[in-house]
Design brief:
Helix content is 37%, strand content 20%. The longest helix has 25 residues.
Amino acid sequence: MTPPLVLAVDFGGTKVESALVTDEGEVVPGSRHRAPTGREATSEALQASVREVIESALAASGETELAGVGIGCAGPIDRSRGLVSPLNVPAWRDFDLRGFAQNVLEQRGVDIPVALEMDGVAITMAEHWVGAAQGVDNVMGMVISTGIGGGLIVGGRVVTGPTGNAGHIGHVDVAGFQGEDTFGKATSLEAIASGPHTVAWARRQGFTGSSGEDLAAAYAAGDPIAHDAIQRTGHAVGAAIASATALLDLELVAIGGGFSQATPDLFDDIREVLDGHYFGFVRKVRIVPSGLSGEGPLIGAAALVHRAELLPAL
């Protein structure tokens, strides 16, 4: 019988988290741990943070046998070699995160497999498993946060592509919008519509806040610049989803991430674009909030092991 627990790791642009996750997609209480990452962090600091959360989760597992480690990481990645190059973490370019995690386990005398996929793939698997996309076989999962990520399930199977970066919707072009030149690609969805880039656009219009939380509060208070900023983001996201749906005939898009929760009106702004599309099969796609709150990325990382049969072979 497969052991019921997986050590899940979610690595992103501001933090890395770990937890133990059951074979029913539940995070074990008291097993969740967090350490900082960030744009300014050195490779050594990033490695120390990953080591810290893995070792903390191992300690929480006690004598319980683990089925494996699942790692979801911001892209791009190289899934066959286990390498990661998170755009918002410049110190890591082609860093062997899978190998590093294996070394941490070996130093603790633990011999279990390590699976690594792009975080958008992981979150999509989580939504399909126990979230908002249960029973739907043509799905895109999205995260709108520090960056914008995505993943795909088509015909009931996870689509990773040969490098592991299929579904990375944050880096598709969106016509009619100009964002920040952070990555040399100011017309990409992430450069237009991520939390920090939405705030940057608002500040150019005169907004004085400095964070997504500030923008959300201003929106709730009726600030017109905040309204325009979030509406602009919703329209850009809607345009990108419309293109993806036209290409893949998606049934549902589940959207999570901190900035996606700035206001429920964001979903209305996304829907407005889709409702105006000229193809009926694009208009029919459902846009829903994530069903997994803040635990989705960790549940998704665990799904890389618990639901490995949905993934293409390495």
